[in-house]
Structure formats: C-alpha cells, structure tokens
Amino acid sequence: MRLHRNLVFAVIDTLKAVFNENKYADKEIAKALKRDKRWGSRDRSFIAETTYDIVRWKRLYAEIAEVKEPFSRPNLFRLFAVWATLRGIELPDWKQLEDTPTRRIKGRFDELSQTRKFRESIPDWLDELAVKELGEEKWTKEIAALNLQAPVVLRTNTLKNNKKELRDSLFKENIETHTIKGYKDALELNERANVFSTEIFKKGAFEVQDASSQLVADFLEVEPGMRVVDTCAGAGGKSLHLAALMENKGQIIALDIYENKLKELKRRARRAGAHNIDTRTIENTKVVKKLYDTADRVLIDAPCSGLGVLSRNPDAKWKLQPEFLEKIRKTQAEILDRYSKILKDDGKMVYATCSILPSENQKQVEAFLQREAGKDFRLLNQKIVLAHESGYDGFYMALLEKSK
Ligand SMILES: C[S@@+](CC[C@H](N)C(=O)[O-])C[C@H]1O[C@@H](n2cnc3c(N)ncnc32)[C@H](O)[C@@H]1O
C-alpha cells in the first residue's frame, strides 16, 4: 500500500479533533470525507478505517510510541507510524515519519500484548469493572470481539420488498450480500460498500441496522393493529422495524427527550413508507402520564453505556467515565419505573440495552421486579447477546408481562 500525503493528513487532523478536542469520531470522519470531492471510495475508506483503527488502539499505540495526551502533531504522526509499521506498510520518506524505530515498535508490541489492558487498549477502570461484572474469561473474549471491525448488516424493509428482492437489487448495484441464520430480515455485506448512495436506499428498501439490534423489535411480539409505545425511540431504528412487523397497521407512539432525534425519525419513516408512527417529545412529565395504561406493548430501548457497540464506536472507550455509568444506571431504573406504567394489564414490555454489563441489564430487571413499580410484572424471557458468541453487537433484551 502506498501512503498518500493528503489522506494521511486528513487522518491526523481527525485524530487531533477526537483525542484532543473530545469530538465524536463518526462526526469528525464524516467532516473529513467532505474535504475533497475527488477522493474515491478507496481513499474514503482509508481515512475512515485508519482513523477508527488508531482511535480503537489509542492506549496500545501511545504506549508503544511513548507519547502522552494531549498529543502534539508530531506525536499524532508517531501514532500513525505505529499503525503503519504494525500493518507492514512501507513508510514514505516524509519528514514527519523520519527516524521511525521499526524494530523497536515490533518489540514493544510483542511485550505489551502480554497484558490485556494494553493488548485490547482499554482504560484500567473499565478493565477492572468489566472483570468484576463478567469474570476474567468472558471479558477477555468479549473485549477481543468488541475490538474487531463491525460487519455491515442491513435490515430488509418488508414494507417495500422481501429479502430475496433486496438481495437481487443490491447485486445489480454490485453489492454482494449473504443471509444470516437466525436473523430473518438481515443481509450482511460481503465487502464494505457505501450503501447509502444506492437508489434503493433512497427508496426505503432497507435500513442499516446491526443483526443484534434486529432481534429487539421481534422480541416484543407485536401484531398488526396493536397500540405500541417506543419510549426511547431516538432516530427510530426500532420504531421503523416495529412498523414493518405491524404491516403499518395499528399505532406506534415514538417518544424521546430530544426533538431533533424524533425529526430524524420522521424523515426516515417517510423514506421507509412507515405510516403508523406518531412522535412526541417528552417535554414534561405530562406527556408520559397521559399514556399511562394505554399500550398493548411498550419498548424501553434504554440509554446505556454503549459497551456492546464498541466495534462501531471505539471512541466510547475513551469518552466513557465511571460517573456516567453510575448516572445512567439511575436513569435506567427511573425509566423502568415510570414508563412501565404506560402498559395496559396483560400487555408486554421489552427492556433492552446495547450494553454487556449485567448491572445495566439483568440486574436492572431483577431490581425492578422487586420494587413497587414492578410488582405486577413477571419476566417471560431474556436474551444476553455477547459479541464473542454472536459475532455482532453486544445486546440485552428482557420480555416482561404485566398481569394483576
Ligand atoms: C439506545 S438509544 C435509542 C435508540 C433507538 N431506539 C433506535 O433503535 O434507533 C436511547 C435513547 O433514549 C433517549 N433518552 C435518554 N433519556 C431518556 C428519557 N429519560 N426518556 C426517554 N428517552 C430518553 C436518548 O435520547 C436516546 O435516543
């Protein structure tokens, strides 16, 4: 592979924003990709993937390069030189890459790879916490899986086409996919491609949605004609799936505390041809109270640490703080207590997160069932989806039933 100066510079600038200015990697990468219209798909994937790699392996690379945060520009080039050296890429004779100690880098890599927190590039506190929650063995396997690049998975929008039709249409656009056993509407890309630029995406034939995330709407056992409340709907990944499962019949009320996310949901619903979704911003407690005892189904896709989706958002390893985790656990418990009241008697509710920590998952559900708010609920089923077992995001979902 030959390194191109303008592409490497784009990577360095993006890393500076992510590491030193606390910006989000996905947003900064998107910005960087707009810099030069002449860049082709290979150039763009070089910028995106190299940046994600260096974000993912920040701790390991910084230890190898012996540099500390905040990273100066020369130090960001040192991190880049470590990335290139470990991939066996020949370094060009640019002055920024002069005197790269190739042999020392390889030696340090072998040495540091003996220790999990360096090998897997994770903060000490997170490593300790995860060992406490999952145990050494499971965590060692899980973090290794969460450090792999995430596959691209699509969900067939059954309001517009079936999986076979979608697969054929993608094939005509030179995008090859395969089905995944156990995930009924999913297609996985054989090779990464920019699916958003296809005509069929614009027509709403599919959504990009991880395979594990596709299990959640199914878990709620919805039927056409039901009244369903998606309490933490965000930009609507699950609401859109619910609309398809309900064949556009019945009503979905999508709630969130952020109006802008619900606006995006509306836009996506139009593209997907999902006509049965109403959005309501939770501006005050009345919005939720009005819905008490009205829903056949409630989905709580709760805000969480996001530790199950590290392969997609590697910068969360560095942005996440122990105090945030404590706060989010409290929010999850409050949300469970309040939003469970939306359910009618004999209705069903799913509590889900994209976390792998029992304290955000099964422990939250167990505690809810012990509290006053949970006294009429019972656990029907739960799924603990770990990345190293499934090959997709880490997820948790619990199906609860209310009966007096
Ligand atoms: C895991 S995300 C939801 C993802 C979404 N369901 C999807 O499938 O695309 C959690 C959502 O909860 C929202 N949220 C945070 N606190 C909330 C609260 N107190 N009530 C309702 N929604 C909340 C966040 O804005 C975020 O959109």
Automatic annotation (TrEMBL):
GO MF annotations, alphabetized: methyltransferase activity
Residues the record lists as binding S-adenosyl-L-methionine: D256, D301
Active site as annotated: C354 (nucleophile)
Alphabetized Pfam families for the sequence: Methyltr_RsmB-F, RsmF-B_ferredox
Top-level taxonomic group: Bacteria
Keywords: Coiled coil, Methyltransferase, RNA-binding, S-adenosyl-L-methionine, Transferase
Matching PROSITE patterns: SAM_MT_RSMB_NOP
Class of the enzyme per the UniProt entry, highest EC level: transferase
Domain SAM-dependent MTase RsmB/NOP-type: 142-403
Single GO BP term: methylation
Coiled coil (UniProt feature): 248-275
Enzyme Commission number(s) from the entry: 2.1.1.-
Family in the record: Belongs to the class I-like SAM-binding methyltransferase superfamily. RsmB/NOP family.
PANTHER family registered for this protein in UniProt: NOP2 YEAST -RELATED NOL1/NOP2/FMU SUN DOMAIN-CONTAINING, RIBOSOMAL RNA SMALL SUBUNIT METHYLTRANSFERASE B-RELATED
The protein's name: Class I SAM-dependent methyltransferase
Annotated organism of origin: Mesonia aestuariivivens
